[in-house]
Amino acid sequence: MKRMACSLSFVTLALTAANASANQITEDMITDAQLRWAQGIVSIGEAKLSDQDYAAYAEKMISELYDYEKYGVLFKPTKAKSDQFRETFEEAHSYFVTGVVNEDNGFAINPWTNVRFDNHDILVMDDIALAMGNYFFTTINNEEVKVEYTFGYRLDESGDVKIVLHHSSLPFNG
């Protein structure tokens, strides 16, 4: 009987460990989400240049990558002045392609030819991760624009990484 109890305990521990790792976000998941975000920004600009429905591209990117549906998102865009924060899906969409916020000029329709992330660090805490660093946006004239960021991510119930925090600013110039 002791042997059976020991075996059952081992199986329980193994299943618990497997379940914990299945619900844990990883650095690789974060870098993949960053790559998808960068590709989304570039795709929106490409769609605008080729007279496609760039607003639909933005809607798809926000739906897939941001968590406005379940928990909401703390979003402070780079080029936000009077209306500093984008609390709703519609406001985020406006920032990327224009819309409900009057000051928005459509950051993603600039267009950008490349976006690359340079993570200073990524902190992983079970199903939450934070990333901070600089990202670089390449213009159609091949100039790079450096922007500072902090992103917060959560692993949702389906195993998808969702953005719950997005703060972005231009480097201090003074």
TrEMBL record:
Transmembrane segments: none annotated. Keywords: Signal. The keyword Signal applies. The keyword Signal applies. It comes from the Bacteria. InterPro entries: MICAH-like (IPR016878), NTF2-like_dom_sf (IPR032710). Residues 1-22 form the signal peptide. This is Phosphoribosyl-AMP cyclohydrolase. It comes from Marisediminitalea aggregata.
